[in-house]
Design brief:
Elements: H1 4-30, E1 40-46, E2 50-51, E3 54-55, E4 58-65, H2 69-98, H3 122-138, H4 143-202, H5 213-227, E5 230-234, E6 240-244, E7 250-254, E8 257-258, E9 261-268, E10 271-278, H6 291-325, H7 354-358, H8 383-390, H9 404-444, H10 448-480
Antiparallel strand pairs: 1-4, 2-3, 5-6, 6-7, 7-8, 9-10
Helix pairs in contact: 1-10, 2-4, 2-5, 2-6, 2-9, 3-4, 3-8, 4-5, 4-6, 6-9
């Protein structure tokens, strides 16, 4: 039979439930601007016990986070793509800066790349060198003109060295960034595993929310997804298993265990770089998205390909200039002298021959005599210097389809085109990510208006529950005073 005590129990349960609701709502409001926070909800249900068919109040069945696992997965997928593209974006920006002609005003006119009288650029140095050779053809006896040819050749060599050194240092920096990324990856994996254990310990049952620990775990997984491609699986005990989603997938975190990674040095295109391997087995790990993948692409593809083109350019310049130069005669009558060191056929190794560096008279400008090929032509002949200058127009690249200018134009054009493609892809992908983020925040984010309405609702319910207890107390006092 219902009694005053049962009414008091109902009022007390109502007070407790509404107080929990007020606390949950207050915590949501407090974290309205907290990154990664998911709004919480107190799930109320009638007490299961009855008193002759009458209810015995209310109870808080569980605390839940408002999340959408599908949107979480989609966000992390898009996050991985953004991470890769941002690494590529950084790399291409730095590569563009090394080829300084990309920063100048462009033109579609024929010969535009070499129409630069100066500047610290490879194209400008080519122009100055070939112009100096043209001057030498017009004045073969001038020591000043010969000095200018050597000076401009030295400047051209320096530009090759500069770009090659910058590309080499950039590759080293990206390799270091890769190692730092692997260290960050391991920290995130250990943090997720630690939170798995804390969540198991904190929860009384699998329906409970472990404070803000689950939000922190999801935040770490979000950061992890920007480094490498991952998927997650919710386990019955409340833990999350993290899987590297390449091929059949590799377990990265399982309950309290983090399967860490390390780096292993390997030779790639003449340089030792680090690859990702499992720490326990040293088995190579393949990744397809995330910042680490973007770093690998810049380090092992973009930089390597551009250096290869630069080396091809240097090799052809050395071979063709030497081939013409050895046929001519210097001011002292010497012949068969190479202008460049023939062993330096890369952008890193290209150098003037020691003979040219030591003696300006060894620069060949005069052709052979028509009557005796072993002797130089008469005074004022600059046919070899002219032939050297004309090499700028020789189609010696691309199977005889491109001049030096056209080959180098293609190279810097390819750099610009690839950079634009990366920039456009990154910009478009960030828009996609923003859309997914907005949808995700609409689900899990805190709305002040909604929370304010809930606050008023819980407040009124609490006041009504308190009124029940007050009335029951008055009735008890009346009963005792009878």
């Amino acid at each position: 039979m219902p009694t005053l005590n049962s009414a008091l129990t109902i009022g007390r349960s109502a007070l407790r439930a509404q107080q929990i609701g007020l606390s949950v709502t207050g915590n949501n409001i407090a974290n309205v601007n907290t990154e990664g926070y998911s709004r919480k909800r107190a799930n109320l249900r009638p007490a299961l016990t009855t008193n002759q068919g009458l209810g015995m109040g209310v109870m808080v069945e569980s605390m839940t986070r408002v999340r959408d696992r599908f949107l979480d997965g989609q966000f992390r997928f898009e996050q991985g793509i953004v991470g890769r593209l941002e690494a590529l974006e950084t790399g291409m920006s730095l590569i563009e800066a090394m080829f300084t002609e990309l920063a100048g005003g462009g033109t579609s006119e024929t010969g535009a790349v070499f129409n630069q009288p100066g500047g610290a650029s490879l194209s400008g140095s080519f122009n100055r060198f070939f112009n100096a050779l043209q001057d030498l053809a017009n004045n073969t006896d001038s020591q000043a003109t010969r000095a200018l040819v050597r000076e401009e050749a030295t400047f051209m060599v320096d530009q090759f060295h500069r770009i090659d050194t910058q590309l080499s240092k950039l590759r080293d920096e990206f390799d270091k960034d890769f190692k730092d990324g692997v260290a960050e990856l391991n920290l995130l994996l250990k943090g997720i595993a630690k939170l798995n254990i804390q969540i198991i310990t904190t929860r009384k049952n699998v329906q409970d929310v472990a404070g803000n620990l689950e939000d922190e775990r999801d935040r770490l997984i979000d950061e992890l997804s920007k480094l490498v491609n991952v998927t997650t699986r919710d386990e019955a005990d409340g833990t999350i298993t993290v899987i590297g989603a390449e091929g059949e997938g590799a377990i990265l975190v399982e309950t309290g265990s983090a399967f860490e990674f390390t780096t292993h040095g390997r030779v790639n295109n003449g340089a030792t770089v680090n690859s990702l391997v499992q720490a326990a087995t040293l088995k190579p790990v393949n990744i397809s998205s995330g910042r680490l993948q973007g770093i690998i692409e810049v380090r092992d593809q973009k930089i390597v390909n551009f250096r290869a083109s630069l080396n091809e350019l240097a090799q052809k310049v050395v071979e063709r200039i030497n081939a013409v130069h050895v046929t001519g005669f210097g001011l002292d009558g010497s012949t068969n002298v190479e202008f460049f060191d023939p062993s330096g056929t890369t952008a890193h190794q290209i150098a003037l021959s020691s003979v040219i560096l030591a003696n300006l008279d060894k620069i060949a400008a005069t052709g052979a005599s028509s009557s005796d090929p072993t002797l130089p032509a008469g005074p004022g002949d600059g046919s070899v210097a002219q032939a050297l200058s004309d090499l700028r127009l020789e189609k010696s690249f691309g199977g005889g389809t491109q001049t030096i200018e056209e080959f180098y134009s293609d190279l810097i054009g390819r750099i610009g085109a690839e950079a634009r493609e990366v920039f456009n892809d990154a910009s478009a992908q960030r828009l996609v990510q923003e859309q997914v983020t907005t949808r995700r925040e609409n689900v899990r984010g805190v709305s002040i208006n909604e929370e304010a309405a809930d606050l008023i609702s819980f407040q009124r319910a609490y006041q009504a529950a308190a009124r029940i207890i007050t009335i029951v107390d008055e009735l008890m006092q009346t009963t005792l005073n009878m």
